[in-house]
Design a protein that fits this description.
The chain is mainly beta. It has two domains: 100 residues, Elongation Factor Tu (Ef-tu), domain 3 (Beta Barrel); 58 residues, PRC-barrel domain (SH3 type barrels). It is 7% helix and 45% strand. The chain contains three helices and 14 strands. A hairpin with a 4-residue loop joins strand 13 and strand 14. The longest helix is centred in the middle third of the chain and has 5 residues.
Length: 182
């Protein structure tokens, strides 16, 4: 499963134009306008493949063009068009980085999905009991976990075939083999 997080941006409600959070600007690098990037993509370097980036700052969302990017030790760094010195880069500190959902392409087919595509799906058991909606996902050491909110919060492991029986993105439905009392 691919990790990418939906923003609460201007294009809520789904579709190819909605914004999906991929990371944030976490620091400064050098004096020529380079910034450090915290990436939520897997692998983390994938964030450097997308352009333009949409940065959320105080005034809302702005499109920025990444010019260069690379790993620098355990960190990712990038240079953006129009950001030519450390002071300009400082203005971008803390900005959320998002891209349009359409920029992500397909997650790979089969049992591969972007997290953002699963969020909001109705979750029902194989016998038709409504459990709620996928609120978000969390990453654990062994497998990802769906956080389903309905009459109460449920944590359901992302285990295709064992627990997750089917995913219908078009129909907005995720079917699970799960005890509603659990």
């Amino acid at each position: 499963m691919q990790d990418s997080r939906d923003t609460q941006g201007e294009n809520e409600g789904g579709g190819p134009d909605r914004l999906v959070t991929l990371g944030r600007i976490s620091g400064l690098h050098g004096v020529q306008g380079w910034v450090k990037i915290h990436s939520e993509t897997r692998p983390r370097e994938n964030i450097l493949k997308y352009a333009p980036w949409y940065l959320r700052r105080e005034g809302g969302w702005e499109a920025w063009q990444p010019l260069k990017g690379r790993t620098q030790g355990k960190t990712l760094v990038a240079r953006l068009a129009g950001c030519n010195d450390r002071e300009q880069a400082r203005q971008l500190m803390g900005a959320t980085i998002a891209v349009r959902r359409s920029q992500l392409g397909s997650a790979g087919g089969g049992e591969e999905y972007y997290w953002t595509d699963l969020e909001g799906l109705r979750v029902v058991t194989e016998s038709g009991v409504e459990l709620g909606r996928v609120d978000h996902l969390i990453e654990t050491g062994s497998n990802d976990v769906l956080v389903v909110k309905g009459d109460r919060e449920r944590l359901i492991p992302w285990l295709p075939e064992q627990v997750v029986r089917s995913v219908d993105l078009e129909g907005g439905l995720l079917t699970v083999d799960w005890d509603p009392e659990f």
